[in-house]
Write a structure and sequence with these properties.
Protein name: Secretion protein
Family: Belongs to the GSP E family.
CATH class of the largest domain: Alpha Beta
Number of strands: 15
Structural class: alpha/beta
Number of domains: 3
Strand content: 15-25%
Largest sheet: 9 strands, mixed
Subcellular location: Cytoplasm
Keywords: ATP-binding, Conjugation, Cytoplasm, Nucleotide-binding, Transport
Pfam family, one: T2SSE
Distance between the termini: 61 Å
Strand order of the largest sheet: 9-8-10-11-7-12-13-14-15
Mean pLDDT: 84
Helix content: 25-40%
Order of helices and strands: HHHHEEEHEEEHHEHEEHEHEHHEEEEHH
CATH architecture of the largest domain: 3-Layer(aba) Sandwich
CATH superfamily of the largest domain: P-loop containing nucleotide triphosphate hydrolases
Length: 400
């Protein structure tokens, strides 16, 4: 149907305040002096309804269970990620104005403002989908949309082994890590699968434990019977009502957590997290952006310094609070995998560094010089029965 005709129908519906039902679309077409068949009227109604209350042309992509990300950079440039890297789709918008309308409507659904005065938004839609949008002139030429699809359920650890994220036998190390109540961080770049892996590991936590999640955007969905989810909130248009991740971590500490989880450590909350892990909250965990596991102490140092914690204090708390770093990468084929597992070690200078313990190989993890320390951590926590069942005491060859 011509875009000019659809624009006229949109205008008529907006002025009359009517829903885009087939009857009202037919009436709007008659008002413009056009008479169409039933199939054309129904097609116009479906298109308008999708645009007004759905995700427009993106709806089929978001409904595809294999899609993790949908990216729009121009009316005819819509990309998806199905786990193997970005693919250009045949989906398109009529023009840049249609992309802008969709971005603004999705932002409104999330309760956020998106206009010329505030040309970007980062929000979560009611179904859990994460939305990021930027309008022109900040985005040159066309509004840009990024939608991160949240699965209705978390992957299991067995599924991650089957997908190649965890190498064969590596699931025994991860189960032992959770069972031993070691504190850990999952590091990696954007889209490397940090949240996916963390959700799977939280699903291994004993049913009798209480998990309290603090997140900027509620993306973690562990399969666990006792989860408390806290989500930050931006200030409203009057500048009131701001709830930061730092606020959430402070509140979480008062909620009797057996496992305190910070979805992404990215600011001043690192101070409260490290303090919590040093005051009896074993098994705490979270994610952090870093280029490599070896860069995690430096990354945390930068965040702690910005929050007013000096370098020596940060490293002192870090040495006592954190035990393991799991680092994820995305290879050139788009596959997400655990590239390395590091343990933390304090140098004579007092600074903390990470030491490689396990390294990725398709046949199974390869042991590095930090393996003995990691094995000692896994075996040194918990009762004797748990040590025997975790598989962490196996000789080095069992992990290769």
């Amino acid at each position: 149907m011509p875009s000019g005709l659809l624009d006229g129908v949109r205008q008529w519906l907006a002025e009359s305040g009517g829903e885009p039902t087939p009857a009202r679309v037919a009436q709007a077409l008659r008002e413009q002096g056009r008479v169409l068949g039933d199939a054309e009227v129904l097609g116009a109604a479906q298109q308008l309804r999708s645009e007004l209350v759905g995700s427009g042309p993106l709806e089929p992509l978001l409904a595809d269970p294999s899609v993790t990300d949908v990216l729009v950079s121009a009316p005819d440039r819509v990309w998806v990620d199905r786990g193997g890297g970005l693919e250009l789709t045949s989906v398109s918008f009529p023009d840049a104005a249609a992309v802008r309308r969709l971005a603004q409507r999705l932002a409104a659904v999330a309760g956020r403002r998106l206009d010329d005065a505030r040309p970007w938004v980062d929000a979560r839609l009611p179904d859990g989908t994460r939305l990021h949008a930027v309008l022109p002139p900040v985005a040159v030429g066309c509004a840009c949309l990024a939608l991160r699809v949240v699965r209705p359920r978390a992957f299991t650890l067995d599924e991650l082994v089957a997908a190649g994220t965890v190498p064969p036998g590596g699931d025994r190390v991860l189960r032992a890590l959770v069972d031993a109540r070691l504190s850990f961080l999952i590091s990696g770049g954007t889209g490397s699968g940090k949240t996916t892996l963390l959700s799977a590991l939280l699903g291994l936590v004993g049913a009798g434990e209480r998990i309290v999640l603090a997140e900027d955007s509620a993306e973690l969905r562990p399969e666990h019977p006792h989860v408390v989810r806290l989500e930050s909130r931006p200030a409203n248009q009057e500048g009131a009502g701001l709830v930061t991740l730092e606020d959430l971590v402070r509140q979480a500490l008062r909620m009797r957590p057996d496992r305190l989880v910070v979805g992404e450590v990215r600011g001043a909350e690192v101070v409260h997290l490290l303090a919590a892990l040093n005051t009896g909250h074993e098994g705490g965990c979270g994610t952090v952006h870093a280029n490599a596991a070896a860069d995690v102490p430096t990354r945390l140092e930068a965040l702690g310094t910005a929050a007013g914690l000096d370098r020596a204090a940060l490293h002192s708390q870090l040495a006592a609070a954190l035990s393991v770093v799991l680092h994820l990468v995305r290879d050139r084929s788009g596959r997400r995998r655990i590239a390395e597992v590091h343990v933390l070690e304090r140098e004579p200078s007092g600074l903390v560094r990470t030491v490689p313990a396990l390294r990725w190989r398709a046949e199974g993890f390869v042991c590095e010089r930090g393996w003995e320390r990691l094995r000692g951590l896994l075996r040194g926590e918990g009762d004797e029965g748990r040590r025997g069942s975790a598989g962490a005491g196996a000789p080095e060859g069992a992990w290769q």
